[in-house]
Write a structure and sequence with these properties.
Strand content: 5-15%
Distance between the termini: 50 Å
Number of strands: 4
Helix content: 40-55%
Order of helices and strands: HEEEHHHHE
CATH architecture: Alpha-Beta Complex
Largest sheet: 4 strands, antiparallel
Strand order of the largest sheet: 3-2-1-4
């Protein structure tokens, strides 16, 4: 089982790290945040647009990452995973993913998370075995949390700017 997760992890990093999806800013954006890991130089710029019909639902997410392949792949996967989710679901997903990456425990149960998406996130959580790389995989997720909640994250030497409203 672990060998399968490691193989999936390598495949995801190679594919999404080399060919990131959703790597452009969403304009117009309803929320945005920037993240930076000063220890390694990874940077993330995240933009969100909410649905006109369901203002609490993420209609589009753009997540541009500059840095290592792990950070870039995580940003690419995050953007695809949060589209169509509510603000609350995305924040819950952030907490579950971050906690699994830090603790090494299995990903918490997430209602409505399709098995293939759960498998992807579970594969990324094997980064727990490399504590210095946890910051690489979680930086985009901390940035998402900042965009959704307006909070500034400083844990784990990561710096994210508070969410800011897009210009009208």
């Amino acid at each position: 089982m672990l060998e399968d997760r490691e193989a999936l992890f390598r495949a995801l990093i190679e594919d999404h790290g080399t060919h990131p999806r959703h790597a452009q800013a969403v304009e117009p954006a309803d929320a945005r945040a920037d993240g930076h890991n000063p220890l390694c130089g990874d940077r993330v710029a995240l933009t969100l647009r909410f649905s006109a019909d369901a203002p609490d639902t993420i209609a589009a997410c753009g997540c541009r990452a500059r840095g290592c392949a792990i950070c870039t792949a995580s940003a690419s996967l995050l953007a695809g995973l949060v589209e169509g989710r509510t603000r609350t679901q995305a924040v819950d997903l952030f907490h579950a993913f971050r906690d699994a990456c830090v603790s090494g425990e299995p990903l918490a149960a997430m209602p409505g998370l399709p098995p293939e998406d759960r498998d992807v996130l579970e594969a990324l959580t094997i980064i727990h075995a490399s504590p210095l790389r946890v910051k690489c995989v979680t930086l985009p997720w901390h940035t998402l949390n900042a965009a959704l909640t307006g909070t500034v994250e400083a844990a784990h030497d990561l710096k994210t700017s508070a969410a800011r409203e897009a210009p009208a």
